[in-house]
Amino acid sequence: MTAHTSTESETEASSGAGGTRPFAPFEWMIAGRYLRSRRRETFISVIAGFSFAGIMLGVATLIIVMAVMNGFRSELLSKILGINGHMLVQPIDMPLTDYDAVAGRLETIPGVVSAIPFVEGQALISGPAGNLGGLVRGLWEADVRRIPLVAENIRAGSLDDFDAGKGIALGTRMAQELGVSLGDNVTIISPRGNVTPMGVTPRVKGYPVAAIFEIGMSEYDGTFVFMPIVEAQGFFRMDGKATGVEVYVTDPDLVGGMRSLVEEGAERPTFVTDWRQRNVTFFSALEVERNVMFIILTLIVLVAALNIISGLIMLVKDKGRDIAILRTMGATRGAIMRVFLITGASIGIVGTLAGFALGLVVCLNIESIRQGVSWLTSTELFDPTLYFLSRLPAEIDSGETITVLVMALVLSLLATLYPAWRAARLDPVEALRYE
């Protein structure tokens, strides 16, 4: 036994000193032959195929799901902040009667893009086809035009002479559900009405539809109604006063550091809140869901990596005679280990690259794919009334994608270590004893 071990060590030492270098062409050639299927090795080839498919689908699924989650967050954030502002300034102690002056002072603060005073109130919107609860917001025409989500998405009518009180602007979904189009009248009913001996009577007034916009977020397209600020002040009995001032900044992620500047710049008692405080529950839920989905879908890649282990172990058992012959011909343990490392790593690397390509193609065409599947199945796969958005978004983050690819490659390479080690430790004498 001792003589055999010393002879084996001498063989490996001589082969390593004057033999082939690591990852020599013959190692790649043998690994390539092991990857190609033969009739009696069909079962092993099937396992390798499933491993490849598992890695590919796992990587593609991770990329697609993370891109859709990023798209959801980005789209919702842009819609919510595009119409509501990044910071809300509300009065304390006394009504906001100097709203134009306050807005002017806030716009001089570095980092503030615009400050828009508004009057806001809830009301019942009535049309020929039904009634809807809505959020009526009064703005100056110039301020409405400074909100790109509204001004750049007018589907019918225009905002010309908006301050003259010639009509209101509402969303496409609200127009459809009320059964109105451009020029039709809608009735707005506010519970804040006139006080009479019989009690408070609701305030009711009709307005023509001057413009119809489509933000792309069904919740807003079916809720918001814009009217001239002077008209809104009269309708909600807020003569000369505003509800607050919406502040838009250059970087929404830096609103925390700008709060003190906004409070000082207002030069009056105010209560300032930012978009994170107003939407903390919503975006926290999105972040938790995104992290959980990443963990769950990573298990797909892990299962595929385990398939690589099982497939290589079976390959090692099947190729025991070949390994023994290679060892007796002078192949070192390191060479045998590298052969099986190349075999398993090839499945993981090619599967990862194929998954990346598949995920990229699906992400770039996800809306077309959704429409095609909806057409084939005659079902609504992405109902805007449930998911808020009118289209399925996907936004690929390069950092996350690289993380997914590196994780898949690392798992695939780790999965090859044990089978390759077993192949390298195979004793040629024991393998050939019964041949």
TrEMBL record:
What InterPro entries does UniProt report for this protein, alphabetically? ABC3_permease_C, Lipoprotein-release_system, LolCE_TM, MacB_PCD
What start-end ranges are recorded for coiled-coil regions in this protein? none
Per the record, membrane topology reads: Multi-pass membrane protein
Ranges for domain MacB-like periplasmic core? 52-253
Task: Show the Pfam families listed in the entry.
Answer: FtsX (PF02687), MacB_PCD (PF12704)
Chief location: membrane
Q: Which domain of life is it from?
A: Bacteria
UniProt domain ABC3 transporter permease C-terminal: residue ranges: 294-428
Keywords for this entry? Cell membrane, Lipoprotein, Membrane, Transmembrane, Transmembrane helix, Transport
Q: Where in the cell is it found?
A: Cell membrane
| Membrane spanning residue stretches | 43-69, 292-316, 336-362, 402-421
NCBIfam families per record: lolCE (TIGR02212)
Belongs to which family?
A: Belongs to the ABC-4 integral membrane protein family. LolC/E subfamily.
Protein name (Swiss-Prot/TrEMBL)? Lipoprotein-releasing ABC transporter permease subunit
- Per the UniProt entry, what species is this protein from, by scientific name? Roseibium polysiphoniae
Taxonomic lineage = Bacteria, Pseudomonadati, Pseudomonadota, Alphaproteobacteria, Hyphomicrobiales
